[in-house]
Amino acid sequence: MSAQRRALGAAPAPLAITMGEPAGIGGEILLAAWRARAEHALPPFFAIDDVDRLKALARRLGLAVPVELVTEPEAARELFATALPVLHEPLVEEVAPGRPKGANGSAVLASIRRAVDLARAGEAGALITNPIHKKSLYDAGFRYPGHTEYLAALVESASEPVMMLAVPGLRVVPVTIHLALAEALARLTTRAIVHCGTVTAASLARDLGIARPRLAVAALNPHSGEEGSMGREEIEIIAPAIETLRGQGIETLGPLPADTLFHPRARQRYDAVLCMYHDQALIPLKTIDFEHGVNVTLGLPFVRTSPDHGTAFDIAGEGRASPASLIAAIALAGEMATRRATAGALKPALA
Q1: Where is 4: in which H helix or E strand?
Q2: What fold characterizes domain 169-288?
Q3: For residue 167, with 0-12 CB atoms within 10 Å meaning exposed, 13-18 middle and 19 or more buried, which class applies?
Q4: Are 200 and 272 in contact (CB under 8 A)?
Q5: Coil, strand, or helix at residue 154?
Q6: SS3 150
Q7: Pick from 13, 21, 203: nearest CA to 112
Q8: How far apart are CA 39 and CA 26, in angstroms?
Q9: Mean per-residue pLDDT for 328-343?
Q10: Residue 48 and residue 233: Cα distance in Å, rounded?
């Protein structure tokens, strides 16, 4: 077998799944995802979590999931077929479903930091983050709007990471994210749109194998502003960004009216759409496929995905939470990690 063919079969290291809020549904969807590993052909993964918590949760839910302690990520590869591998991250206090305790915020943050360190060292092929509860983390000294900003700080990223949300048939990138609508409009700039478009196109090519990514850019105002009669943002902010992206060789459509951008025929024209504010992106995505949404952070030195939902305290511990979004996040992380591993192996093989 040639060096190139060996490289094409390169496999990433096992994927790391963080603890998330221990009083939420993260633990039970993790157990359910492991049970569905064969059905969905999931790549090997391990949890960074409290081993005793997961064992107790499996007993509580009546799930036949053997939970086994590992001391290094690579051990998860062989163990994965018969047990859920776990790197132990102990909780400070015992926790009951639906009742978060601020003291455990330090363990949640430690789980994230360990996963980042392992991913940066190449010992974890990707990072999948379970949902967090910000109030508990604030009690532990957390001062970030969410996972994305915290991960950027941990890696000391020189540029702002980009959030992409994906379901089968649609990928959306909100240019402004968790802001009140008035503030989001005030912060919308040509530079921000260009940054999101550049990072998105690069990731689509590198991590998803789309050789020539096609981007669509949503208008902000109805009917794309009607040539300025219903707002000038399309003329003064969005159109210049589109021209800059085209100048970089990125195929870019727009500005396109948002009310006609998401029907099935329209979605055939692009690989991802840049949206101007949070709900412009999230409403069509969750309408099309509420169960399988995946949050992907672009622009980090490692692959990071997350289920596109919260902690669901109201149903935690009842075994009713769907693991579909976490399963989709694991599958997508595995695909992206495999492409990165293959690309890394091909460099010396093709030199």
Answers
A1: helix 3-8
A2: Isopropylmalate Dehydrogenase (3.40.718)
A3: buried
A4: yes
A5: helix
A6: helix
A7: 21
A8: 20
A9: 94
A10: 45
158 Cβ neighbours under 8 A, 6+ residues apart? none
What crossing angle do the helices spanning 239-247 and 190-208 adopt, rounded to 10°? Answer: 40
pLDDT tens, residue by residue, 3-56 = 333 344 567 999 999 999 999 999 999 999 999 999 999 999 999 999 999 999
CATH hierarchy code of domain 1-158+314-351: 3.40.718.10
Query: What ranges do the domains of the chain cover?
Result: 1-158+314-351, 169-288
pTM for the full predicted model:
0.92
pLDDT in tens, 212-254: 999 999 999 999 988 888 999 999 999 999 999 999 999 999 9
Strands 84-88 and 67-69, sheet pairing: parallel
Tokens of 170: 């649609």
For tokens 């132990």, what's the residue?
Answer: 88
**Span 304-325, pLDDT tens digits:** 999 999 999 999 999 999 999 9
What is the phi/psi pair of residue 59, to 5°? Answer: -65, -45
